[in-house]
Amino acid sequence: MWDYTDKVKEHFLNPRNVGDIADADAVGEVGSLACGDALKLFIKLDDNKERIVDAKFQTFGCGSAIASSSALTEMIKGKTLDEALGVTNQEIADFLGGLPEEKMHCSVMGQEALEVAIAKYRGGPLPVHHDHGHDQEQEGEIVCKCFGLTDGFLKKVIAQNRLHTAEQVTHFTKAGGACGGCIPKIKELIAEVLGEQKQDAPKRPEKLTNLRKMQLIQEVLENEIRPQLWSDGGDLELIDIAGATVQIAFRKACAGCASSGYTAKFVEQKLRDLVSDDIVVEEVQQ
Ligand code: FES
């Protein structure tokens, strides 16, 4: 049984901004009833066409899809289109106090509907990740035929959400969740993204004294890891280092987040890549 936050339940039972806007400036539609999820997002701009003054949605989806859409419409009101484009699926989930990982694809759908709406309004090409819409032209190579998802979209979600397993990719995008024929390719994409991230990363030193190891752990946390968490509204604090065990406590959006277990694994992997293979990260409540 999935654990839903009170805020998810509240937005599911009393969703904000349900309906349509007859004279909407922008409309974004993603999903397909065949896939079980569909979302139509309506946006109304102010007279200067600068800020979003109203947003409404219609969705055919589960409770998490309703709650994510409700959260999204609340979050983008008052924002410029560029500011709204900066809203990530993780921020939608964080607004709701977290979503079960199996339901993260609902927050991805909200982010996509927004990007499609804005791209259509601006008259530019539709975003390459507009892949839930089976009736639209798509760029990139289709990886998951069952859900019509391209490699470009999957790589973006893998990189943005720091996904490490095909199962996580299924939870975030549905790719691989039907026939499973695309799972080998999804694993290749994960390896590709991880490889690209590693190329950018500084090299790990050969031999370390205990003192240098502790210094390096702190440097990697400060310079490599915390900035990534800040970009998602989260944070962590280093509590203690005992030998190869690094104790951390999550703060802000990361505290109590349903995905904190995966974030801890991400921190551990990063420290192993950049400091030492034997590092074990423990999350503590302090
Ligand atoms: S091809 Fe991806 S689940 Fe079938």
From TrEMBL:
InterPro entries: BFD-like_2Fe2S-bd_dom (IPR007419), BFD-like_2Fe2S-bd_dom_sf (IPR041854), FSCA_dom_sf (IPR034904), N_fixation_NifU (IPR016217), NIF_FeS_clus_asmbl_NifU (IPR010238), NIF_FeS_clus_asmbl_NifU_C (IPR001075), NIF_FeS_clus_asmbl_NifU_N (IPR002871)
GO annotation (BP), single: iron-sulfur cluster assembly
UniProt keyword terms in alphabetical order: 2Fe-2S, Iron, Iron-sulfur, Metal-binding, Nitrogen fixation
Alphabetical list of SUPFAM superfamilies matching this protein: Fe-S cluster assembly (FSCA) domain-like, SufE/NifU
KW Metal-binding (keyword) present: yes
Domain NIF system FeS cluster assembly NifU C-terminal: 217-282
Amino acids binding Fe cation: 35, 62, 106
CDD domains in UniProt: IscU_like (cd06664), NifU_Fer2_BFD-like (cd19947)
Cofactor stoichiometry and binding remark: Binds 1 [2Fe-2S] cluster per subunit.
GO molecular function: 2 iron, 2 sulfur cluster binding; iron ion binding
Cofactors named for this entry: [2Fe-2S] cluster; Fe cation
Domain (BFD-like [2Fe-2S]-binding): residue spans on this chain: 142-192
Chain ranges of the NIF system FeS cluster assembly NifU N-terminal domain: 4-123
Keyword Aminoacyl-tRNA synthetase recorded: no
NCBIfam families: NifU_proper
Function: May be involved in the formation or repair of [Fe-S] clusters present in iron-sulfur proteins.
The name this protein goes by in its record: Nitrogen fixation protein NifU
Organism annotation: Geoanaerobacter pelophilus
Gene: nifU
